[in-house]
Amino acid sequence: MKIAVIGVGRWGVHLLRNFLAHPQVSVVAVVDPQAERLAAVKQQFNLDENILLTTQWSALQQVAGLTAVAIATPATTHYALIKEALHLGYHVLAEKPLTLDPGECLELCQIAEQQHLILMVDHTYLFHPAVEQGQTVVKAGKLGNLRYGYATRTHLGPVRQDVDALWDLAIHDIAIFNNWLGQIPVKVQATGTVWLQGVENRELTHSPSGLADLVWVTLTYPDEFQVYIHLCWGNPDKQRRLAVVGSRGCLIFDEMSTTSPLTLLHGEFERQGNQFLPVNQKPEMLELKTGEPLQRVCDRFILSIIQNTTPDISSGWVGTELVQILSGLTASLNQGGQPVVLKINGF
Question: Model-level pTM?
Answer without folding.
Answer: 0.94
